[in-house]
Fold:
Amino acid sequence: MILKQIEALQVFLEKPKNIVIVGHRNPDGDAMGSTLAMYHYLLKKGHQPTVVVPNEYPQFLHWLPGSNDVCRFDKQNKQSQRAIKKSDIIFLLDFNALHRVGVDMQKTLEKYPNDFAMIDHHQQPDDVAKYMYSDTEICSASQMVYHFLEMMNDVHLIDKEIATCLYTGIMTDTGSFRFRSTTSTTHKIIADLIDKGAENDKIHNNVYDSNSYGRLLLLGQSLSNLQIKPEYKTAFITLTDDEKKRFSFEKGDTEGVVNYALSLKDIVFAAIFIEDKEQGIIKISFRSKGSFSVNQFARNHFEGGGHDNAAGGKSDLSMDKTIVKFNSLLPKYKEELKVSYEN
Ligand code: 5GP
Ligand code: MN
Structure:
């Protein structure tokens, strides 16, 4: 764990400030949950916060309280730039390297003259923030925001809105409280969030039971594209741009699909390769069970990173060539994969 200047941050926040809160590109439940929880908290403390995210986030997160006030850097560029220019400090939540916001927004952040405060749970943080709370042991940035409020002696300020945002972020980043990162502390916090107004059934329903028909068909296509490499305990899914179009793909539709590959008996390493013709890349998600580090795998071979058991990356090659590359890497990891996870 790294804690840097948190007391100084507390002093800095004693007077009302203009504050921008940033989440990573392609924001997920934890990015939106943590940034919006921080937004509601800072509002309550008398600050003027603005959440700025690089691009669109999934429809199943648009019900989150405060979602209507979120600025999108790609779509509401002037408004976002204005908020950043006016701000006294920028909070970076759920990411730890400026390139994670995408090229355009990265350029703006790199020129930012004031200080950053980082709260994040990914490995190998960049040294860009004056104020920093980094802990790779914690399941989610949202749980870290709860601990941050503890450090600020402000847990009593958590209301229904903050509780709802934090619950959502913790729930989505723990695969609904099932990953190894879920601890008894996580469950105690979740209990407290329910006491403070988070409606667990509604949150689960809003996030997981709000599929469009097209999304289910896309899932069907993804599953029929699944390939299994039993000798490497590996399974992967491909999805081309044409297939996405055929099932009216919307942002977020492929979220969680990689977990189906990992749900196969005896599979410890799963990947999904999603073609994005607009960006000219194949976006990849990696998941693993046990000791095999997909963070390291993504860093070494696919310009990515993340956590030991959940990471992402990209490839500039065609889909076919990307799969050839992926398959050619597997033999090197055969032994590691074999012993990664014992039941
Ligand atoms: P997902 O596969 O759900 O997009 O991401 C899994 C985890 O890996 C998340 O914690 C996410 O922040 C991280 N991640 C995803 N893509 C990238 C990437 O391109 N670079 C890095 N450094 N991390 C990524
Ligand atoms: Mn996260």
Summary: The first strand starts at residue 2 and ends at 4. The chain has two domains: 2-208, 213-339. Residues 24, 28, 285, 304-307, 310-314 surround guanosine-5'-monophosphate (ligand 1) (CB under 6 Å).
